[in-house]
Specification:
- The protein is an alpha+beta fold.
- The chain is built from 13 helices and 24 strands.
- The strands form six sheets. Strands 1, 4, 5, 6, 7, 10 and 13 form a seven-stranded mixed β-sheet that branches.
- Helix 3 packs parallel to helix 4 and helix 7 (302-316) packs across helix 8.
């Protein structure tokens, strides 16, 4: 996919995630004095939103931005409660365009130079639930990213205490970092308020925090996006605007037939014959590409449509990042499907159903690239709907895509439809895998079973390479008969990177070089000062670190009086 035109500033989105549990209320010593963490989190959010609003008001072409501010805590029953903290008071977590946010009536603070109160602050009480909150943010971000490969990477800023972090949080954080655009992966930043200096937790959060680029002009070194008991909005500003367009991942080229071990398992719904199985799969080991699809039961000729999607993906390897190319590819498959069902020879009732409903299916595609000098291999996946990828390393689940929790497997997923007139958009993920890594591609019923199992214990992922089809089907039949699993067609493809030497490596993390960032509103760009017209990127040339920031020079936020 080619880089967007240089005169087009890409869209972006920002999610501020604020913990509202009781552990955020006690005073701790911060870089701004002694104050409760929830007050510090609000001040950080307000400063950043004020800077964005001011920059937009000054006319700098920063593109379209969508903003969400989400507070979270657990209810008395343990369920996650997520609520919007945007100033319009509507509780549903959602995005608001920056231009719309800027037009909202927002109360000023008492002190001159302080940001306005852009975020609401309900009472901080109850228990934390960081994993469930981040899962909600994952869903919010993935919906925004679908079909937007040319956008800026979404930035998620988590303002948090230290309690409640479990293995699910780190899995979801790694999953979030798989979601990508042409400018790089989603960037997760952590602002942690911690009176006890929990170095173990800090080290673990460091590993899932985005890496920010250095600044040669100021001598700033590359660093992870985690800060303890302090904040400076110049750091998230760089996360929002740094990073150039990156070359697409290289796949194919080198034969990987000897490097990929494949097995597949499938079964129809309990009570149906194998011929009534309406999922599909296709794998090409020589090209290291695979796909699975789940045909929608409400359509007609869905099994054929699902199989054509899988075979077409493996054969054509369409550039799913480009919406135009993806749509052209789907349109070609639509013509092939219509010819294959011999539409003109159908009776009138089948013709009517083809015209009115047609076929539909979810699609999950996966591609593997050649090994680098360190033995790692790039991989990429695309998803339309809720067929799910599970990435396993040393029998432990690293990450999932395109969902991270069982409740995100809904009854109305996105679908690729056989009838013309429907737009097709994909979500894209990519990473670097190590020798010995395993990828499980599962349709939604199998994925839901995995997620439900994960709530209690981690499955033995190795067994899916050795379990016989008869044993697997018997297990599923028992689960479906006892209603522990939905009665649906089931498909599982197991892909193992079969290099002989297993090397340890980092989790697909990389550093994007610095790119131009928009200056703040109160400083003109060099091109404007010299009287020359400039493109949006030229107007954005000054480094954010060289510019004054509102509210940071003499900022003594009152700990309790002006939250």
């Amino acid at each position: 996919m080619t880089q967007p035109p240089p005169d087009t500033w890409p869209a972006g989105c920002l999610v501020l995630l604020v913990r509202l549990s009781a552990d955020m209320t006690g005073d701790i010593l911060t870089g701004r004095g002694e104050l409760p963490p929830v007050i510090a989190a609000r001040q950080l959010a307000d400063e950043l939103l004020q800077a964005l609003v001011d920059t937009l008001a000054a006319g700098y072409p920063i593109g379209h931005w969508d903003i969400a501010v989400v507070g979270y805590r657990a209810s008395d029953a343990g369920a996650a409660q997520l609520v919007s903290l945007l100033p319009d008071g509507r509780p549903q977590p959602r995005y608001v365009p920056l231009a719309e946010l800027a037009a909202m009536p927002v109360a000023p603070r008492d002190s001159e130079g302080q940001p306005r109160r852009w975020t609401l602050l309900p009472a901080a009480e109850g228990s934390p639930c960081p994993a469930a909150a981040l899962a909600g943010v994952y869903a919010l971000v993935s919906v925004w990213l679908t079909g937007r490969f040319t956008a800026r990477p979404p930035v998620v800023i988590h303002c948090t205490g230290t309690a409640g972090f479990d293995r699910d949080y780190f899995r979801i954080a790694r999953s979030l970092a798989l979601l990508t655009t042409g400018y790089g992966p989603v960037r997760l930043l952590h602002y942690v308020w911690d009176a006890q200096a929990d170095e173990g937790l800090h080290a673990r959060l460091l590993g899932v925090s985005a890496e920010l680029p250095g600044d040669p002009e100021t001598g700033t070194a590359p660093r992870r996006g985690i800060w303890i008991n302090d904040w400076d909005i110049r750091d998230p500003w760089e996360a929002l605007f740094s990073g150039p367009w990156q070359q697409p991942m290289t796949t194919g080229g080198e034969s990987t037939a000897s490097r990929l071990r494949v097995r597949s398992l499938n079964t129809a719904k309990l009570g149906n014959t194998p011929e009534q199985w309406e999922d599909a799969l296709a794998v090409d080991t020589s090209a290291a590409v695979a796909a699975i699809a789940d045909g929608a039961s409400s359509g007609i000729f869905c099994r054929l449509w699902a199989q054509q999607l899988c075979e077409g993906f493996v054969r054509d390897r369409p550039e799913v990042c480009d919406p135009t190319i993806l749509q052209q590819w789907v349109n070609q498959l639509r013509q092939q499907w219509r010819a294959a069902i011999q539409y003109n020879n159908l009776n009138w009732s089948k013709k009517a159903k083809v015209d009115q409903v047609g076929a539909a299916a979810t699609l999950l595609g996966w591609e593997l690239g050649p090994a680098g000098s360190d033995g790692q291999r790039p991989w990429r996946a695309c998803a339309i709907g809720d067929a799910c990828l599970f990435w396993i390393r040393q029998n432990h689940l690293l990450a999932t895509f395109p969902v991270v929790a069982a409740e995100q497997l809904g009854s109305t997923p996105l679908l690729v439809r056989s009838n013309p007139g429907f737009r097709t958009s994909a979500l894209v993920a990519q990473g670097l895998c190590a020798p010995g890594d395993r990828f499980l591609l599962a349709t939604d019923a199998v994925a839901a079973h995995f997620f439900q199992t994960l709530a209690e214990t981690e499955p033995d992922w190795h067994r899916y390479e050795t379990i016989t089809p008869e044993e697997w089907i018997a297990e599923l039949d028992q689960l479906r008969s006892s209603r522990q699993m939905v009665n649906d067609d089931c498909t599982l493809v197991v892909l193992t990177i079969d290099d002989t030497v297993v090397n340890e490596c980092a989790d697909h993390e990389r550093l994007a070089p610095a790119d131009a960032m928009p200056p703040l509103a109160d400083q003109a760009s060099p091109s404007a000062a010299s009287g020359h017209d400039a493109s949006p990127r030229e107007q954005s040339a000054p480094s954010a670190r060289s510019l004054p920031w509102p509210g940071t020079a003499d900022n003594d936020e009152c700990p309790h009086g002006t939250p």
